[in-house]
């Protein structure tokens, strides 16, 4: 898409307070679990965004009732074994394309899954093969990707499955989230290079236990979910800390000061690692009852293994491109399978702005270099748009393509961003 957004440039330090909408990962886990729970659930301060609305629609098409009219979403579970055919649009949402098929297998009918053009290239085979091994009927025409059809029989045997989840932690989360509803529960055993995104796996285990599901994750790379009811709960969704990343990074990049309201004191969100990353890059970070305050200082590069926090890579790479010393970001081979090949996209777009970037098989190297304005392509990737916006705070003339793609997880991003940066004295 070619619509351009002139990212506002700040004349001085970026200062302000921001309220970030709810977490995509927590909202979509809460919705999935509510759809198979033992009664009606409430998901308070649910994120309203493309990914979560797609999830609500997907679960509704499988027979759950998801009332999304207010900020607090109300979910009545689907009727297990009910006869119903469905069409599921996954958009570009990893959480929808991975988390919903194991639920569809519990419905008595055919669920046809498809998504955006790029969604058809995102890895899926491990989940689909695992579902077959657990007793479900899945037809992907041998592609191992979208589109595919899950022919649910109203119940799934379950049991033990071995898979390689090195391409995405979501393969494991998907099976664990539905596993308690399978006759024998589920045991997922990972074999292969390390599974990325450990915080997201911890989040999955945490939300299951919160609903009374018995999960054993004591053995490395093995997760056991006992069969049993998923308790319906009333939960409040935390702000999305990964979506807070560009805002706190703007403070770090401009010697500014930004407060993110309501940053949780304890969380499983990967974005919480920003506290450590920004400190290592030279910022001062304070977490108190009000939230997280980041105050920027000299901005340094860093050598960082990001395997656990791949969704932070675009913003951290953009910030590293503004630093006064080199950086090396590692452990990121799997983000080539995200919304776009993020390593290739970051390499291409940062280089276009004058950045000195080396693309490695598993990450990026960045050297300090004077940057200049240019068009910044986003490849339908919300986090590429965040990276472009961040660069534009410091570098005049950054024109971000298709900023509307941020609606995947944060509708209103551009407005919130402009309010913060122009409120700090910007050339919009
Ligand atoms: O389970 C989740 O909610 C997510 C897991 C991670 O996926 P990968 O393990 O594929 O990186 C993360 O990057 C994604 O944004 C959300
Ligand atoms: C990888 C991401 O999304 P998804 O849930 O679509 O995998 C992301 O939001 O950075």
UniProtKB/TrEMBL annotation:
The keyword Cell membrane does not apply. CDD domains: EPSP_synthase. It is an enzyme of class 2 (transferase). Its main location: cytoplasm. The active site is at 311 (proton acceptor). Keywords: Amino-acid biosynthesis, Aromatic amino acid biosynthesis, Cytoplasm, Transferase. GO terms for molecular function: 3-phosphoshikimate 1-carboxyvinyltransferase activity. 3-phosphoshikimate binds at residues 24-25, 29, 168-170, 197, 311, 338. Catalyzes the transfer of the enolpyruvyl moiety of phosphoenolpyruvate (PEP) to the 5-hydroxyl of shikimate-3-phosphate (S3P) to produce enolpyruvyl shikimate-3-phosphate and inorganic phosphate. NCBIfam families: aroA (TIGR01356). Belongs to the EPSP synthase family. This is 3-phosphoshikimate 1-carboxyvinyltransferase.
């Amino acid at each position: 898409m070619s619509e351009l957004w002139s990212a506002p440039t700040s004349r001085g330090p970026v200062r302000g307070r921001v309220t970030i909408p709810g977490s995509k990962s927590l909202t979509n886990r809460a919705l999935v679990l509510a759809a198979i729970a033992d009664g009606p659930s409430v998901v308070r301060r649910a994120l309203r965004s493309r990914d979560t609305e797609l999830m609500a629609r997907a679960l509704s098409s499988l027979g759950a009732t998801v009332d999304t009219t207010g900020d607090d979403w109300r979910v009545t579970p689907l009727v297990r074994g009910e006869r119903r055919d469905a069409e599921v649009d996954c958009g570009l949402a990893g959480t929808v394309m991975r988390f919903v098929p194991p639920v569809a297998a519990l419905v008595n009918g055919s669920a046809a899954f498809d998504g955006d053009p790029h969604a058809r290239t995102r890895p899926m085979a491990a989940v689909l093969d695992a579902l077959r091994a657990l007793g479900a009927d899945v037809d992907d025409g041998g592609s191992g990707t979208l589109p595919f059809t899950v022919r649910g029989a109203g119940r799934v045997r379950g049991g033990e499955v071995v898979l390689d989840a090195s391409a995405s932690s979501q393969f494991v989360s998907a099976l664990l989230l539905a596993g308690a509803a399978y006759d024998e529960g589920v045991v997922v055993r990972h074999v292969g290079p390390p599974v990325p995104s450990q915080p997201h796996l911890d989040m999955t285990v945490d939300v299951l236990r919160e609903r009374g599901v018995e999960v054993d994750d004591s053995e490395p790379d093995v997760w056991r979910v006992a069969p049993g009811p998923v308790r319906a709960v009333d939960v409040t969704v935390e702000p999305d800390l990964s979506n807070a990343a560009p805002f706190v990074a703007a403070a770090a990049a401009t010697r500014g000061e930004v407060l993110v309201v309501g940053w949780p004191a304890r969380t499983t969100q990967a974005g919480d690692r920003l506290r450590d990353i920004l400190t290592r890059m030279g910022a001062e970070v304070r977490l108190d009852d009000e939230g997280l305050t980041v105050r920027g200082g000299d901005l340094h590069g860093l050598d960082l293994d990001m395997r656990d926090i791949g969704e932070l890579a675009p913003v951290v790479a953009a910030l590293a491109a503004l630093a006064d010393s080199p950086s090396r970001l590692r452990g990121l081979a799997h983000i080539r399978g995200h919304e776009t090949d993020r390593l290739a996209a970051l390499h291409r777009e940062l280089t276009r702005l004058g950045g000195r970037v080396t693309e490695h098989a598993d990450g990026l190297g960045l050297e300090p270099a004077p940057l200049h304005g240019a068009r910044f392509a986003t490849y339908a990737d919300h986090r590429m748009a965040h990276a472009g916006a961040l660069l534009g705070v410091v570098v005049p003339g950054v024109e971000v393509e298709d900023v509307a793609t941020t609606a995947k997880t944060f509708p209103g991003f551009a407005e919130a961003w402009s309010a913060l940066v122009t409120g700090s004295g910007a050339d919009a």
